[in-house]
Design goal:
- There is one protein chain.
- By secondary structure, the chain is mainly alpha-helical.
- The protein has a domain of 73 residues: Winged helix-like DNA-binding domain superfamily/Winged helix DNA-binding domain (Arc Repressor Mutant, subunit A, Orthogonal Bundle).
- Helix content is 53%, strand content 5%.
- The chain has 7 helices and 2 strands; from the N terminus they run αααββαααα.
- It has a two-stranded antiparallel ribbon.
- It is elongated and about 60 Å long.
């Protein structure tokens, strides 16, 4: 099962906004540059997020976008639902009538468990959680040899 670029890039754009929470409007071109997403595609991704009430947009030279709620109040389940729709791996999980044997099918139960597991992760993860993870990754990258007994990296000439 894969998320489309809508889900992946949209989540990255929202993470970028969460990283800049409280700084005012963020120009889309800045997000596009930092996240390496084409500006036209980013503009396409923003529309459902605005319609879903996650972000606001202001046009003009001083315009940009910003989150409508604090990052700790935005769950990834809400983001993915707006951008991707259902996370069910097969149609019969959301619509048992699509497959008349759903109630007799053991694989249906597994696909439902998969959906519940994914939903549990997305429901329990907020943009604030992503911000914290991102900051941790940035800090770890400052010390690339942090896993090697905290010893400094030696030059090849040593």
């Amino acid at each position: 099962m894969k998320l489309s670029t809508k889900g992946r890039y949209g989540t990255r754009a929202l993470l970028d906004l969460a990283l800049h929470w409280g700084e005012g409007l963020v120009p889309l071109k800045d997000i596009a540059h930092r996240q390496e997403i084409s500006l036209p595609y980013l503009e396409h991704l923003i529309a459902p997020l605005i319609a879903g009430g996650l972000i606001t947009s202001t046009r003009g030279p001083q315009g940009g976008v910003s989150l409508l709620k604090p990052p700790e109040e935005v769950k990834l389940s809400e983001v993915i639902q707006l951008l991707e729709g259902s996370i069910a791996p097969v149609e019969c999980v959301d619509n048992p009538d699509a497959y008349p044997r759903s109630d007799l099918c053991a694989t249906h139960d597994i696909w439902d468990e998969v959906r519940k597991a994914i939903d549990g992760v997305l429901e329990s993860t907020t943009l604030h959680d992503l911000v914290e993870r991102q900051r941790q990754k940035w800090n770890l990258n400052l010390w690339p040899d942090h896993r090697k007994n905290n010893t400094p990296k030696k030059d090849d000439n040593s």
